[in-house]
Amino acid sequence: MELSDRKKKILKAIIDDYIETAEPLGSLTVARRYLSDYSPATIRNEMADLEELGYLEKPHTSAGRVPSYTGYRLYVDMLMEKYRLTMSEMEDLSRRLEIKARELDGIVRKACSTVSALTDYTSFVITPQVSQLKFKNIKLIMIQEGLVLIVLVATGDMIKDRRIKAPLDITQEGLDRISGVITDLFCLKTANEIDFESVFFVEISKLWPELVPCLKEFLGEALSGSGGDVYLDGTANIFRYREYQDVGRAKSFMDFVDDEESLKNLVRKASQGETICEVIIGSETGRQDLKDCSMVLKSYSVSDDSKGSIGIIGPVRMDYARVMSTLEYIADAMDTIFRRMID
Amino acid sequence: MELSDRKKKILKAIIDDYIETAEPLGSLTVARRYLSDYSPATIRNEMADLEELGYLEKPHTSAGRVPSYTGYRLYVDMLMEKYRLTMSEMEDLSRRLEIKARELDGIVRKACSTVSALTDYTSFVITPQVSQLKFKNIKLIMIQEGLVLIVLVATGDMIKDRRIKAPLDITQEGLDRISGVITDLFCLKTANEIDFESVFFVEISKLWPELVPCLKEFLGEALSGSGGDVYLDGTANIFRYREYQDVGRAKSFMDFVDDEESLKNLVRKASQGETICEVIIGSETGRQDLKDCSMVLKSYSVSDDSKGSIGIIGPVRMDYARVMSTLEYIADAMDTIFRRMID
DNA sequence: AATTAGCACTCCCTACCCCAGAGTGCTAAT
DNA sequence: ATTAGCACTCTGGGGTAGGGAGTGCTAATT
Asked: What averages of pLDDT result for each successive group of 10 residues across chain B (343 residues)?
């Protein structure tokens, strides 16, 4: 059933206002503040209808009305005006995101802190998770007499390293030869396709017995996948909002956010959409302890095949429009930064 | 002035109890619960003295007494019994700390989460900060046609990397030669001792013009130092304690903990001691917003010259004995893990 | 038929008060 | 030097009253 225009206007007004003030709205206030064309009584009747339809709720008999989760859902999907970042906001954002260090880690942290600073909510980033990497290249580097660093490059240009003792008589040239052969042998193989039985390794083991077992272990671990790291920022922001003046709620929020695994699970379950922001409102999270929270997620790509998520989590009464455009802008900025990194 | 034995006993009893219950203690309770040899009246008199001396405080006229900061200080320095981890606690701890991935990052995260899980306070780790690194070794690795990965090893065996486009006709052997020469030229130099004017670079620039400027920038950044990363865990633990049922306090705690810089500053200022735990009680932090918190810090070493800090932060009423021995044990465990990593 | 005015009713929130309980400090007795 | 006795103080919880905001219903108006 389609809502009348007037109902939509009223619902939008209530949600807009509630997002700002966290105060239940009465018919009088709505009329005065937003819709002076209609009398309070008219609005009162409409509000009763909207409650009937499940878009509004009454905290108690004689309070005003408050949006319900379905109300917010309708709002996000249809009612809300898309927020456009102003010029100065975009500049501010770009300035904050300017990174000197060109490390993935640093960029991600910065993006995270930028989002929380700009939205005043708690932000998080989850780095792309890769479950099975392929071998790309290996390099043995002499870092001092008898000590060698093994550097592995895997698909997605992930870098892993490990130290190992080496025979004293080995030279960098020798290491380079070994590196070359291993790279040729293993190129583009996964951990369990790798085979250490060739003649080459038998030979090597005579000169340098530690190498093969160490390599075996290292490659096994390094190629088994990684990522899925969680970064958080602005957890204290939750206290800005009335609904979390209550210690119990604040605690359950913190408990959730503190636990990387549960956050990762939730995000993984939710983030299907590619281009647009995912919005999860209140109990849509499916978790009892998060029924007072909403999340907004956006995915970003480090490379074609590896995607991470950036998002915010805050009260259900959230400035969705603003958050969504901020996240879209940031994710876009991250995408271009990462693309440039490969250039 | 030296306290009498009886005064010490009473003070210790009060602090021990207060740490557990967070409830002001009256003379009657002290007598009944800890010191039935003396009558409440005697204890009352002694408590009045202890208040006079500044070790106890009264929240109000007719409440019991509560330890003051100087009281806690005395307790930590002289009164408290050193806590010894039980066998099963040590086992639990070692089990949690068992790491599959042998990456610095992973170990540190794990140590952090272990501490907060075991102490029920908020824990943090700050990785060693190195302000000026020296060049040790460089290696150019072909990761695909026309794309090269530069891997730098610096003092402390820090690894940094960057991608760069390369001429299509270059081979891995060519890269190995270049790597060798650069390593010889720059070995053990700092960023500003490095000189790109030699004939070698002039020659190289003809074949591969992007390399020199890219290297310049990369080495500049990579050798300028790094570390000082902050990891946090168990922030939600603060809600376990009565004194943080108050939203205002919880907020200022979170605000502090959220801000990596302020945490780093405070830790840097405090952590001088090498062998033993540093304890900072209440206003000793010198920050108004942290006057209800205490910190305990312990340093750990990744290598001889680079030390990080691990610690916890919680209410002033903290189980110092337990926290200190946990931290000492963990720091010790980390030291041996890192030592083994080099072996 | 849709809108509006009027009005009685409901419920929360705050302020206020009162009192029991716990602990103190002082004095006098042991 | 220690202890018993006692009057005094202060907090925190429970109970209560009244103002305020908002509702739903009915009747009047457009």
From this structure: 90 97 95 94 96 96 95 97 95 85 82 96 94 91 89 86 90 92 94 93 94 94 88 95 90 94 91 80 92 95 87 97 97 90 67
Check CB contact under 8 Å for B235 and A250. no
Total domains present in chain B: 3
Outline where DSSP puts E strands in B68-146: 122-126, 129-130, 135-144
**Closest to A164 (Cα-Cα) out of A182, A181, A151:** A151
**Domain match, A275 and A159 both:** no
| Distance from residue A159's CA to nucleotide D13's C1', rounded to whole Å | 63
A237 and A213 both lie in a single domain? no
Contact between chains at B236 and A221 (C-beta distance less than 8 A): no
Compute the distance between CA of residue A71 and CA of residue B113 in angstroms, rounded to an integer. 39
List own/partner pairs for A47-50 with CB under 8 A and 24 or more apart. Answer: A47/A10, A47/A14, A49/A7, A50/A7, A50/A10, A50/A11
The range of the structural domain enclosing residue A242 comes to 87-128+228-342
Read off the CATH number of the domain in which A163 is found: 3.30.390.60
CATH value at residue B56? 1.10.10.10
Reading the block at residue B82, the tokens are 């050193």
Alpha helices in B168-246 (DSSP H): 172-186, 199-207, 211-223
Q: Residues B301, B242: one domain?
A: yes
Q: How many CA atoms, within 13 angstroms, populate the side-chain half-sphere of residue A139?
A: 27
Tell me, yes or no, if A163 comes closer than 8 A to chain B by beta carbon: yes
Whether residue A314 is found in the same domain as residue A338: yes
B253 touches strand D (CB under 7 A): no
